[in-house]
Design goal:
The complex is a heterodimer of chains A (about 90) and B (about 450). Chain A is mainly alpha-helical. Helix content of chain A is about 40%, strand content about 5%. Chain B is globular, with a radius of gyration of 21 Å. Classes of the chains: A mainly alpha (about 90), B alpha/beta (about 450).
Chain lengths: ~90, ~450
Amino acid sequence: MDIQELETTAALAQIELGQGDLQKLGDAVSQMLDNFRKMNELDTTGLEPTTHALVKDNRVRPDSVEPSHLADALVERSPELEDRFLVIPNVL
Amino acid sequence: MDTLETRWKQFSAKKTAYLAYAKPLEQKVHSFLSFRPEAATAGAGPLAGLPFAVKDNIAVKDFPLTCGSKMLESLNSPYTATGVARLEAAGATVIGKTNLDEFGMGSSNEQSAFGATHNPWDVSRVAGGSSGGSAAAVAAGLVPFALGTDTGGSVRQPASFCGVYGLKPTYGTVSRYGMTAYASSLEVMGIASKSLELTRKVYDLMKGRDEHDQTSLDPEPGNTRQVKTIAVLDGLTDLEPAVEKAYQATLKTLRDLGYTLLPVHLGTLDYAVAAYYTIATAEASANLARFNGIRYGLRPVYAENPEDLIRKSRTAGFGDEVKTRIMLGTYVLRSGFQDQYYTKAQKVRTAIRNELQTVFDRADLLLTPTFPTRAFAHGDKSMTPYQQKLADKFTVTANLTGVPALSFPAAVEDGLPVGMQFTAPAFEEARLFEAAARFATVVGVPDCPGTSLDWSK
């Protein structure tokens, strides 16, 4: 994969790559992509894609209210709290 | 109840002796990321008094849930995974969270952000991965069983490396609620233990539909029949000589036990690794998008704007292997490349499923080695992360097709265990247990040198 493709992909993945990473991760990604291209040797004409191993049909449930007791436990686990507000870094 | 289980039932009464045994051993092996044996209680139910360990990408209330990543180093879980909760309800107690390759991505445990686990058989070697901590803790006699997750072989390969059983159940039979998602269409919670009977018992207690996981299901009653015919791969190559030797010996033992061995050709096996990593990385890139420093994860002290915060969080929080896989997954899903890679892989997945079905039309089980090598040395240059991925060829098929598979201890060669793998049709776990139990009457489960269950000695 060329550097520009790699940078575009990294931007989409929201990861910053330094010069060393571009080389190192770029090589690892290219090596795997070469391996992926082997799949082209296999004729898959007429085959439907499998998205899920065993799921046969969509499962539905009644649209009813279920209690959840997680809210307080989640809020308490925030690194920084002001009353029940989560404190996050100033980003503006 | 077998002897292993009987001995472990005394655990809460013998904690002092246990700690004297476990602490120095754990220091050498480093199988746990958090270890709280003091908390174990006697409990009541079919697993009363049994302590167990849980891979650190599975939620257990008030335990850390690091996933082996700096990203989640400070996360403490507010709830318990369904599979674990069902075992707790049966009387078992979690005594620790085990080490893993970051987010389950790796085959050596060397991708853990908190240091690798060492193989209890030889600490200069890896324990395997990604559930390496779970397999090592079981082999070292620190717990009677441990839970792992199996996305592409992550329970079975370390089980093979550590000389224990490793079960990957049928997809969906064990709820994924509370399991940190890596590749949702492939993964399932699995079990490592030195006791086949206990493995079966734990599986029976964990399985079944869960309202919190829409893909979970009740195992369909299989057409379980006595195992008579076992398919074996024709022209199996590229095995390490010690594994080849163990494989040939296994074939002989199975023949002597009266099984008919049916040579089969699996042409799609050559494409299984490519299809697996295409799908797994694609799903990973979507699943790991949630780790952004806002809802979860490592948060930078300062950021210019929200996008900068997310980038800084992910750049500092993820290790190289995770970044590589997210990049790969992002690439194969990019517009313009999707048909070439992702859709193609899904079609290959169909081809693999169809071919495996033709095998199970003629045979009750499929036998392969679990992994082409025994446990390799830390830093082995011939086992790069790329080589490790290629070596997943025997395990990934069960994940792509959703069927169950079991790695069982088959031999010890030059002081290192070798595992073999049975694969069965969906919901036919009973066949795996039946054949492995018969095999164990000839080749027993090896005891790792330096380990014991009698803590008073």
